[in-house]
Amino acid sequence: MRIELTIAELERVAAREVGRGSEALAVPAAGGLFAAARSLATGTPDAAVFTGFFIPGAEPPAAETDGPLGAAQIAAALRLLGGRCRLITDEPCAPVVEAAVAAAATGLAVDVAPLRGYDEWAAAALPRYGQLTHLIACERVGPSVDGRPRNMRGEDIGAHTAPLERLYSAGSAFRIGIGDGGNELGMGRLPAELVAQVVASGERIRCVVGADALLVGGTSNWAAAALVGALALLRPDVPELRALLQPAWSYDLLASIVRAGAVDGVRRRPTLSVDGLDWPAYAEPLARIADLVAAAR
To answer: What is this structure's pTM?
Structure first.
């Protein structure tokens, strides 16, 4: 019971409000962190993590810093648990995602979907994805009510985004969604009226694809860190998981992906920040998550 209470606190820390309604969105998703972590901690996961959110209006255009960092953190954790994991993204986001893997999970497979010829590529990948135990989306945009992927400004970014939701919906895998703004894969689990109420243009941008367990963060990276923290609590036999929770680990990875071209999704330029948060403010929830896990020993 104590572990469940600590995981619930991790869930609350990850949902810290940054101005997009994350605390309100997290209310109906409560319990998703425990459900996701318990599913991954039981048995041997064979997972894929979907990530990469392209910012076409950035200077220069690139994938944002939120998402690839958390995805690589989750993948590194699953490998420590003895599971298998691969990352999946699309061509515009590939340089940043591949840099995250090179820095945090060397040797991890990265599947890169093309924008042209996607249907043929997906048909070849479908048998493999349909056999996985877990499909995890970490800050990956999904289709809105009109079928188009939209950013927080309501802009259609379909020209820069492969429809990876088709693979995310494949097979009978346990699906985990991680997001912060309502437009990411998994957010279809939330009531449409809630997203419309608390998110700017929420009725237009809300992703309609749901998940078995939803994690809402003030930034998606925080929710990913909370998931790793929950895994560390449920699997104390793998103490190496705790090293992934140290803010310094995230800082080094953030620096690596920014060098590879990643941009802050709010500021639209390559800076050592996430969603407009400079490092000190961004690191506060990470430190709190690490402290909660350490105190539970």
So the answer is: 0.97
Could you give the CA distance from residue 17 to residue 21 in angstroms, rounded to a whole number?
6
Q: Is the dihedral of CA 203, 207, 213, 214 positive or negative?
A: negative
The pLDDT value given to residue 126: 94
Q: What pLDDT is recorded for position 106?
A: 87
pLDDT tens, position by position, 152-161: 999 999 999 9
Q: Give dist(CA 186, CA 168) in Å, integer.
A: 10
User: Can you give the length of the chain in residues?
Assistant: 297
Q: Average pLDDT for residues 45-54, to the nearest whole number?
A: 98
DSSP per position, 110-165: EEEE-SSSHHHHHHHHHHHHTT-SEEEEES-B-B-TTS-BB-TT--B-GGG---TH
Is the confidence at residue 268, as pLDDT, over 80? Answer: yes
List, in sequence order, every residue forming a beta bridge with 227; answer none if it has no partner.
none
Q: What is the CATH number of the domain that holds 70?
A: 3.90.1640.20
Instruction: Give the residue among 186, 240, 179, 232 at the shortest CA–CA distance from 209.
Output: 186
Q: Which residues 6+ apart lie within 8 Å of 90 measured at CB?
A: 52, 54, 112, 113, 114, 115, 161, 162, 164
Which single residue is written with the structure tokens 């690596």?
256
The pair of structure tokens assigned to 119 is 């249907």
> Quick check: 75 and 105 in contact, CB under 8 A?
yes
Q: With 80 as the cut, is the pLDDT of residue 297 above it?
A: no
Spatial CA neighbour of 132 closest among 174, 81, 178: 174
Instruction: Give the count of domains, the chain.
Output: 1
Please give the residue range of the domain that contains residue 92. 2-295
